[in-house]
Every structure is written in structure tokens, then in C-alpha cells.
Design goal:
- This protein has 263 residues and is an alpha/beta fold.
- The protein has a single domain, classed as Rossmann fold (3-Layer(aba) Sandwich), CATH 3.40.50.
- Helix content is 35%, strand content 15%.
- It contains eight helices and ten strands.
- The chain has a seven-stranded parallel β-sheet with strand order 1-10-9-6-2-3-5, sandwiched between helices. A three-stranded antiparallel β-sheet has the order 4-8-7.
- α1 packs across α2.
- The radius of gyration is 18 Å and the shape is globular.
- It starts with a strand and ends with a helix.
């Protein structure tokens, strides 16, 4: 696990978007795992700008979203399909047939969750997974106590997650309490993971995920076992990390070695 302490969320978005664009140049049929929420919006904005201003082609890209609320239609403003359309898919040329979400409406959800896993395998697996980190340590909607080998499934949300997400809903508006989500095992199968976490409300979760024991009580801690995961955190999110000085020293030394052409 690599920890990058960044001066701003904007710089982190630059780094994440640039890595995706570099990978896309090498592999036009890149497979992306996508997250929602406020954190990745700046990354998506940069990808859209790259398409419109620089002509970057996304026509062979496949995408798989982490999660979706149960029984929210795609045209519902709170659905993640709506979010992704607004912030990314309306701004790049990814074919609709290449866009995938875990099943969230209708029947046979268990079977269709297995089919979602099969679709990921059929395109060769996810190359780059964008992640956020919940304040209770969840990744996707894998809440505390989730199996660390879980696959795509239906998951009931914790009271903490429901409270954190309540800011997106007006008074009296019904808020979903169940979602479909990629499993932790699914996320761990991805080749590269880029996680962003900002603000003091994420500090405890970042500490537990990066420096705590690997535990289902903090699902994000399993990322310590992934060979190519980078955490991008600002100073507030990094406030409780005991090894901050070491992470900064590592960044400096890696930058030096890259400048010397040795990495």
C-alpha cells in the first residue's frame, strides 16, 4: 500500500485522472471500476475535459460501478446511474452497452449478481478501480462485518452510512436502506486501486484502514493485502496516521529515484 499525502483534493484528482489517461493510451479497451459520491467528481470532470479538449477516445472502455441503491430507477436523481450519467457518461464516448451496474431492480437479484461477476471476468477483469472510503471504513457498500472474500451481493446499510448519506436527501424524502454492491473479494481482484479520502471526518477510517489490523470491522483495511493500492489523503484525513513522516519521506525518495530514471 502506498500513501500519498496531498496538499489538496484537486492535486489528487489530477494524479488519479492522469494515471487513468496514461493507462488508456496503452490499453484502449481499459476496464474501469467506478465509484460515486462527491470525492471522484473532480476525476470525472478531468476525464470529460480530456475527451472534449484533447480528443481522448473512450469508445472501447468498459465500466463497472461499485454499487447502486435498490429499487431506484436510473432516472431518479439519487440513483448512482443518474449520478454517473451527469458527471461522466454524458461527457465521454463510452458506449451504453459497455456501461455496467450491479443489479438493483426486479427479481432474481442473487443470480444476476453472479452474472455481474461473470461480466467482469469476460472482459478480463477490472484494470483500475476508483474507491472512496466511508467514515466507518466501508468500501463500496461493504459495511463493517462484511466478509473479506465477499462477492457482488445485496447489502443492508448501517445506520452510520444512512446518516452520512442523509445530506443528499431533503426532509421527508424516502432514503434507501438496501443496495447492491461489488464484494470485497471482487474489489481485491482488480489490478490497480486508487482510493481518495479527504477531510477530518475520514481521519479515523483512514488510520484504521492504513495502520490498523486487517479486520471486517474496517473493510478498507483489507487493502493492505492488495499489491497495487494507493491512498490519496489530505492533511486532515491523515491527521491520525502515526507514520506520516515516513510516508512523506517515501514520496521524496521515490520522486528522486524516478528523476534519476531508476524506477
Amino acid at each position: 500500500m502506498e500513501v500519498i499525502l496531498t496538499d489538496s483534493a484537486s492535486l489528487a484528482a489530477d494524479a488519479v485522472a492522469n494515471e487513468i489517461l496514461d493507462a488508456l493510451e496503452t490499453k484502449p479497451n481499459l476496464v474501469l471500476g467506478l465509484a460515486t459520491g462527491s470525492t471522484p467528481i473532480e476525476v470525472y470532470r478531468r476525464l470529460g475535459a480530456a475527451h472534449h479538449k484533447e480528443g481522448v477516445d473512450f469508445s472501447k472502455v468498459h465500466t463497472f460501478n461499485l454499487d447502486e441503491y435498490l429499487d431506484l430507477p436510473g432516472d431518479h436523481p439519487q440513483s448512482y446511474k443518474y449520478f454517473m450519467q451527469e458527471h461522466l457518461f454524458d461527457h465521454v464516448n463510452i458506449p451504453q452497452d459497455n456501461i455496467h451496474f450491479p443489479p438493483s431492480e426486479g427479481d432474481n437479484l442473487v443470480r444476476r449478481c453472479r452474472e455481474y461477476e461473470q461480466k467482469i471476468r469476460e472482459v478480463g477483469g477490472i484494470d483500475i478501480q476508483i474507491l472512496g472510503l466511508g467514515s466507518n471504513g466501508h468500501i463500496g457498500f461493504n459495511e463493517p462485518t462484511s466478509s473479506l472474500k465477499s462477492r457482488t451481493r445485496i447489502k443492508t446499510l448501517t445506520a452510520k452510512t444512512i446518516k452520512d448519506n442523509s445530506r443528499f436527501y431533503s426532509d421527508g424524502e424516502e432514503q434507501p436502506v438496501v443496495a447492491s454492491t461489488m464484494g470485497i473479494g471482487t474489489i481485491m481482484d482488480t489490478k490497480r486501486i486508487l482510493l481518495q479520502a479527504f477531510g477530518k471526518k475520514k481521519a479515523e477510517a483512514v488510520r484504521n484502514a492504513v495502520e490498523g489490523p486487517i479486520s471486517s470491522l474496517c473493510p478498507g483495511s483489507v487493502l493492505q493485502l492488495h499489491p497495487l493500492t494507493t491512498f490519496f489523503v489530505d492533511s486532515e484525513a491523515a491527521d491520525l496516521l502515526t507514520m506520516k513522516d515516513y510516508y512523506l519521506a517515501t514520496i521524496r525518495e521515490n520522486d528522486r529515484l524516478r528523476a534519476e530514471g531508476r524506477l
